Each structure stands twice: as C-alpha cells, then as structure tokens.
C-alpha cells in the first residue's frame, strides 16, 4: 500500500494504491484500467486530451468491472485477452477544500486495475477516444505516460502477478 497526494485540476487529491483489496458493492468504483501485456511489452493507448496511458475508463450503467475492462481494452487498444484483478486506487477528496458533493465524483471513489494477457491484437480502427497505440518495454513506461507515480508501482505489481 502506498499513498501520494496529486494536484488534479488545482485540487489536492489523496491517492492510495491497495493491491488485492476486495471489490464489493459498497465501494464506489469510478473507473477500470488494464495493464495489457503481449510478448513482454506493455500496451499504451494515446487518449484524446490525456496523452498515453493504460487503457481504461468509466463503467456504463449496470456494467460489472470485468465487463467494463473488456469493453475498454477493446475500445481503446483493440485487444482481447485473459484478465486478472490486481488492486485498486482509493481516490479521496477529503483534503480537497473545493470538493463538490454534487459533482461527478464521490468524496471517496475507487479506480480498479487488472492485468490482461493479450491473446488477440485486432486492427486499430480509431473509432473511439484513442488515436493510437504503442507497445513498449516495461522499463520505458514511466518515460511515456504522463501520470502519477503510482502508475509504475501498479505496473510492477501487474508484472509480478501469477496469471495461472
């Protein structure tokens, strides 16, 4: 477990990576993300207005986390494969004096992460919000994605995960 504070849009937000924490219905899951691995390389998708990152996004109404990550990895990376849960980031706005309780996000929400071992890489059609995809060596990921320092820790946990 590791906690950091980030500046999101001028707001102080507390992020805590909790590997293996069980997902239950009382948690407000706001998004799902996947570390997609094929031949030892990591998939990064270039998302409009966000740059390169792991594929992922919000859950649709009535959608389970596993359904959402399968949909999101297809929409953003055009890949399919076997998934396994890694852990989650607790996103807390408790220290954010500008938090809007009527806003889009809860006071405490969760971003769920999976590992996907890609077994099918489909033609990249650019039909959704990603403009390109690249496959990079794990050691190169921190130099390409523009995200918080937990992204590297999550990658390390994904690589260490036994997919059997």
TrEMBL record:
Pfam families noted in UniProt: NUDIX
InterPro entries recorded: NUDIX_hydrolase-like_dom_sf, NUDIX_hydrolase_dom
Highest taxon in the source lineage: Bacteria
Domain Nudix hydrolase: 27-158
Name the record gives this protein: NUDIX domain-containing protein
Organism: Solibacillus palustris
